[in-house]
Write a structure and sequence with these properties.
This protein has 5 helices and 9 strands; from the N terminus they run H-E-E-E-E-H-E-E-H-H-H-E-E-E. By secondary structure, the chain is an alpha+beta fold.
Length: about 210
């Protein structure tokens, strides 16, 4: 397959990211951008983020997960601890989060250290999920090979019957991760590819920012 994509381009002209408008704390800027993304009619899931891990095979890998909470300046998401993603984090807990909101011509890259949340925190979130999602967590041995779609649906049916008319327990292999940011990079598209890139880094007990060339 061959495709010529050289002429696929657009001009970014919706906003600017200037030092005079920057808050001291990057979480304030993140919250401001996130609220705009959440309120945008052109963005379906503002909390969708790409998480990049270093796999046990030595390759980086990205996938989309949903941000579920920001608490004590940590970003929380939930997953199967035995999945490829979970195994990668267990082996090497330095990860990257990436938010991309093309309707706003913005993206944010966040370097983090990830750690498991308490079982109580995982249970609290698990109990808030729809029943179908709870059963799905039990039915899928995430990232392992399955012989067919029918086999997967059989596993779902098994757990639907197993937990019929009872409260679904939190699986031992499932829970949350809290991601502690070490740096933020805010990107705002600008004309002529001279994009605004502002990087915040945590130095001591304070955040410092600098402008990066595009």
């Amino acid at each position: 397959m061959q495709r010529d994509l050289q002429n696929l381009r657009k001009s970014y002209e919706k906003d600017a990211l200037l030092e005079k408008n920057l808050p001291v704390n990057p979480f304030r800027l993140f919250d401001s951008w996130f609220q705009e993304a959440k309120e945008s009619l052109e963005i379906d899931e503002a909390n969708a983020m790409s998480i990049c891990t270093l796999g046990t095979d030595g390759f980086p890998k990205s996938r989309i997960v949903l941000l579920k909470e920001i608490i004590q300046e940590k970003f929380l998401f939930y997953s199967n601890y035995t999945s490829e993603k979970g195994s990668a984090i267990n082996a090497y807990n330095k990860i990257s989060l990436h938010f991309f909101w093309p309707a706003l011509e913005r993206q944010i890259i966040i370097k983090c250290k990830a750690e498991k949340v308490t079982r109580e925190k995982s249970l609290s979130y698990f109990q808030s999920r729809p029943r179908g999602s709870q059963i799905g967590a039990w039915a899928s041995n995430q990232s392992t090979e399955v012989i067919s779609r029918e086999k997967l649906e059989q596993q779902l049916a098994y757990f639907e019957q197993k937990f019929k008319d009872i409260e679904i327990p939190l699986p031992e292999f499932w829970g949350g991760y809290a991601c502690q940011p070490l740096s933020f990079e805010f990107w705002q598209g600008r004309p002529n590819r001279l994009h605004d890139r502002i990087c915040y880094e945590h130095v001591g007990n304070e955040w410092e920012f600098k402008r990066l060339q595009p």
